[in-house]
Write a sequence for this structure.
């Protein structure tokens, strides 16, 4: 069947392109090593197999640090989603509230979080608390901006319909505004989802510590870099990338699951 | 179905004005409709037909004058009214049955009664087979039927329709017109129907109100003296065609 052939093709294409990229990498490493010596090559452009073996020898440390980073990312992300949603409800409750508060939300967003990192450390201490706070700060804005937009742009005719039915304010929020804003909220959450692991790693770079045994991914980056363990650094990058995929994948799945029945962005094509 | 001066009017507008800022949209509207009347509002774009409908619904307040629905001011009479919008205006995240039961849910009826009424109304518009579908799985005509069923769940005494079939093809529109008349004959609500189509207005109404634009004033009221029982065959009747010509002419020549 044509569709099966297409499926095989689309599965094969990234594998083929990956193999080609790998080949290019190997040849660059090889020729570079030939000209400057393989000791130098190892710490500038390691061979891919040197990276995988570093991944294996460092597996325990990398696992623990990834777990640590994932924890900060999840806590920061969930807090940002919950607090962001609540704030959006407040902002959308009346025009004057939005006018009064939204500029300050923007000010908060425009301040680079990294600049605030030392202050967080000062206030709530190194490690998990500060890293979580930094993740929160990074994830917070897209949730607020999108959800507020969704809550205030509810269809005029639908609002009239609710008014004609003598709906209470609570009913209007529960049965109309919240579901109407759902796609907007989930879009904000998707953006926050891509930012959360980055936030947790950056937070770790600036506020991380190895107190309690192990640091996060950012801490490992600093550590390996200072020891010139470059294949290990590449291995760390690989692990961070995987963490990002898992995170974004989960959030995208949630997005799909909640909207699959009705929203144009995700629903399956069906003809009746 | 005739206007009966002895009857208390179901809807009455007395010297009603509506202004948005400096623009007068409706000017000196005096009109009343008795129970069971089917009134169409026609006129050029911007003549304020939709505005008049929304004033009766209490969605807009009149700038001046008095609007009475079933002896009350429009906002208090909401329970007696239902509004059918230009688009079907369904909740896209709810299935057909849940969309239809919505007004009853908002009113706090028990789930059992809600579903029973919703099912009955969907049967009335021949949609019993589509209870579990989502709005996007329906054709435009079917969506409009759902919207009608939803309006009927409240057993309204006044039905306000804001160009409901404007976006549909002619055949679907004709079918829905016939269905609407069938239900009207059964329930005898008072209808205000905004439309651009002279043919549709004549087919449905016992009176057609022609509004002029800038500002909207009642230019002419045309009584449609056709049998109450109307079927598709009426569309070939010379008397009907005469009325359509008359209404078209009136819309074209108002100023």
């Amino acid at each position: 069947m044509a569709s099966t052939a297409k499926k095989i093709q689309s599965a094969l294409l990234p594998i083929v392109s990956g193999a080609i990229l790998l080949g290019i990498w190997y040849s660059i490493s090889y020729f570079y090593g030939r000209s400057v010596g393989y000791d130098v090559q190892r710490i500038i452009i390691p061979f891919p197999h040197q990276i995988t073996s570093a991944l294996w020898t460092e597996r325990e440390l990398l696992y623990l640090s990834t777990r640590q980073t994932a924890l900060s990312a999840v806590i920061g992300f969930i807090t940002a989603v919950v607090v962001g949603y609540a704030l959006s409800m407040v902002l959308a409750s009346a025009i004057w509230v939005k006018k009064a508060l939204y500029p300050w939300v923007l000010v908060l967003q425009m301040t680079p979080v990294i600049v605030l990192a030392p202050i967080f450390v000062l206030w709530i201490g190194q490690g998990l608390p500060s890293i979580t706070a930094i993740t929160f700060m990074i994830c917070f804005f897209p949730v607020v901006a999108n959800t507020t937009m969704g809550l205030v742009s509810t269809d005029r005719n639908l609002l009239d319909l609710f008014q004609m039915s003598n709906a209470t304010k609570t009913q209007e929020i529960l049965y109309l505004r919240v579901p109407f804003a759902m796609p907007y909220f989930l879009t904000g959450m998707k953006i926050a989802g891509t930012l959360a692991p980055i936030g947790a790693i950056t937070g770790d770079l600036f506020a991380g510590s190895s107190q309690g045994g192990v640091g996060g991914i950012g801490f490992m980056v600093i550590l390996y870099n200072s020891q010139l363990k470059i294949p290990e650094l590449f291995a760390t990058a690989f692990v961070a990338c995987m963490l990002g995929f898992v995170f974004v994948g989960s959030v995208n799945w949630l997005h799909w699951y909640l909207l699959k029945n009705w929203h144009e962005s995700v629903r399956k094509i069906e003809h009746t | 179905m005739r206007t009966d001066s002895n009857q208390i009017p179901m809807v009455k507008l007395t010297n009603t004005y509506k202004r948005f800022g400096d623009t007068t949209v409706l000017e000196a509207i005096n009109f009343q409709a008795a129970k069971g009347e089917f009134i169409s509002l026609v006129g050029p774009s911007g003549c304020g037909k939709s505005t008049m409908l929304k004033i009766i619904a209490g969605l807009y307040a009149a700038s001046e004058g008095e609007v009475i629905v079933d002896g009350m001011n429009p906002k208090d009479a909401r329970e007696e009214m239902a509004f059918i919008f230009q688009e079907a205006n369904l909740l896209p995240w709810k299935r057909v049955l849940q969309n239809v039961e919505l007004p009853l849910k908002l009113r706090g009826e028990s789930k059992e009664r809600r579903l029973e009424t919703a099912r009955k109304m969907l049967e009335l518009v021949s949609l019993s087979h589509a209870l579990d579908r989502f709005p996007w799985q329906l054709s435009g005509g079917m969506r409009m039927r759902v919207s009608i069923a939803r309006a009927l769940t409240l057993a309204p005494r006044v039905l306000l329709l804001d160009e409901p079939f404007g976006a549909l093809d002619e055949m679907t529109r004709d079918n829905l017109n016939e269905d609407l008349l069938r239900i009207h004959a059964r329930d005898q609500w008072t209808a205000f129907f905004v439309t651009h189509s002279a043919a549709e207005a004549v087919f449905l109404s016992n009176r057609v109100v022609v509004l002029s634009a800038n500002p909207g004033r009642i230019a002419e009221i045309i009584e449609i003296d056709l049998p109450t029982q109307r079927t598709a065959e009426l569309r070939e009747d010379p008397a009907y065609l005469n009325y359509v010509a008359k209404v078209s002419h009136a819309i074209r020549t108002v100023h």
User: Anything to note?
Assistant: Chain A has a mean pLDDT of 91. Residues 174 and 246 of chain A are 31 Å apart (CA to CA).
